[in-house]
Design goal:
By secondary structure, this protein is an alpha+beta fold. Among the domains are: 71 residues, Alpha-Beta Plaits (2-Layer Sandwich), CATH 3.30.70.260; 72 residues, Sporulation related repeat (Alpha-Beta Plaits). It contains nine helices and eight strands. Strands 2-7-1-8 form a four-stranded antiparallel beta sheet, covered by helices on one side. Strands 4-5-3-6 form a four-stranded antiparallel beta sheet, with helices on one face. The longest helix is centred in the first third of the chain and has 22 residues. One of its GO terms (molecular function) is peptidoglycan binding. Pfam families: SPOR. It comes from Luteimonas salinisoli. InterPro entries: SPOR-like_dom, SPOR-like_sf.
């Protein structure tokens, strides 16, 4: 019974709210705010009286109209520009167009004497500074642009070793100490200028060889790292040249061994 009473009460409340919402008076339209003191209220043309309309029409008819001018504001200058365009054989409409102005700017800004490289190449290598200077002097008048470039050749690798011992027995004793310290990768050289020396490995990079030397020295072994092969520096001359440049003749005149093609973007 209580549940039914609650349901009936809710239905009655809903019906009452719906009835109030349907019968409520309409909301009043918002009023137009009053203008500040001394400021007249704006009126539409339809709201004005016939006398005010007639007065406004008479004032508009009495005012003189100024002649139209272009963005430059000088009709005479525009007329002169049109006349010049006709004398030059162009359409006056094209004289002030962006394409016409850009074409004139390109024609005036172009430099016919500007040298544009047709190709670029490298001549070399030069091992001596004297031969490089002679080649530069010979090629300078023929090139539009010339620069020197160094190429450093790295060693083939690095080796770690212990210097030669007094005899084979001393080398074997050191080898046993190396094995006891955990360095099993070693070999005793048997002949040559480095007989009885102990090789402790080859490495492709200097950093790895130096780390191995540091570990050996920390264990009490006087190891050393030496490069395999010599490190050399060779010089090249990079040139930007124009049409008609004879690369073979320039290579002969410079005393270069080779002439190789080069991307001109690398010279900028």
């Amino acid at each position: 019974m209580l549940l039914r009473a609650l349901i009936v009460l809710l239905l009655a409340l809903n019906l009452g709210v719906a009835l109030w919402w349907a019968l409520r008076p309409p909301a009043a339209a918002p009023g137009v705010p009053d203008p500040p003191p001394g400021v007249p209220r704006l009126q539409l043309v339809e709201e004005a009286s016939p006398e005010a309309r007639a007065t406004a029409a008479g004032v508009a008819a009495a005012e003189p109209q100024a002649p139209l001018a272009d963005a430059d504001g000088d009709p005479a200058a525009d007329a002169d520009a049109d006349a010049d365009a006709r004398n030059a054989g162009r359409d006056p409409a094209d004289a002030d167009s962006p394409s016409g102005r850009s074409a004139e700017g390109r024609a005036e800004g172009a430099d016919p004497s500007a040298s544009v490289p047709a190709r670029c190449l490298s001549l070399g290598p030069f091992d001596q500074a004297a031969s490089l200077a002679a080649a530069r002097e010979a090629l300078q008048p023929r090139a539009l642009h010339l620069r020197e470039r160094e190429v450093v050749s790295a060693p083939r690798g690095w080796r770690v070793m212990l210097p030669p011992h007094a005899d084979r027995a001393a080398a074997q004793a050191t080898a046993q100490k190396l094995g006891a310290a955990g360095f099993d990768d070693h070999f005793i050289l048997a002949e040559g200028a480095e007989a009885n020396a102990i090789a402790l490995g080859r490495f492709s990079g200097e950093a790895a060889a130096r780390r191995h030397v540091a570990a050996l020295r920390a264990a009490g072994f006087a190891a050393q790292a030496d490069p395999l092969g010599e490190t050399s520096v060779r010089h090249w001359l990079d040139l930007a040249v124009g049409d008609g440049f004879d690369a073979d003749a320039a290579r002969t005149a410079a005393g270069a061994q080779r002439a190789e093609a080069l991307d001109c973007a690398q010279l900028r």
